[in-house]
Amino acid sequence: MRIEGSVVVVTGATSGIGRATALRLCAGGARVVLVARGAEGLAATAAECRGLGGQTLALSADVADAEAVERVAATTVERFGRIDGWVNSAGVEMFGAFLDAPLDEIRRVLDVDLGGCVHGCRSALSRMVPQGHGVVVNLSSILGIVAQPYGAGYTMAKFAVRGLGACLRQELRLAGVRGVDVCTVFPTAIDTPMWQDAANRTGRRVRALPPPLPPERVAAAVVRRLRRPRGETVVGGLLGRALLAQYRLWPGSAEWTIGIGLERWGLSPTKRAPSTAGNLFRPAPGPGAVRGGWRADR
Question: Model's pTM, two decimal places?
Answer without folding.
Answer: 0.97
